[in-house]
Amino acid sequence: MSNVYEEMTTAELDEAIRDLEEQADEIRARGLSLDMARGKPSAEQTDLSRPMLDLLTGDVELSDQGAPVANYGAPDGLPSARRLAADLLGVDAANVIVNGSSSLNLMHDAVVNALTQGIGGNRPWIAQGPVRFLCPSPGYDRHFAITERYGIENVPLAMTPTGPDMDEVERLVQGDASVKGIWCVPKYANPTGITYSDETVRRFAALRPAAPDFRVFWDNAYVVHDLYDGGDQLLNIFDALAEQGRTNLVYEFASTAKVTFPSSGMAFVTASPDDIAELRAAFSIMRVSPEKLTQLAHVRFLRDVDGIRAHMARHAAILRPRFDLVQEKLTQGLGDAGVATWTNPRGGYFVSFEGPHGSAKRIVALMRELGVTLTGAGATWPYGADPLDSNIRIAPTFPSLESLSDALDVFVVAVRLVSAQLALEARQG
Ligand SMILES: Cc1ncc(COP(=O)(O)O)c(C=O)c1O
Question: Which atom of ligand 1 is closest in space to residue 256's alpha carbon?
Answer without folding.
Answer: 10
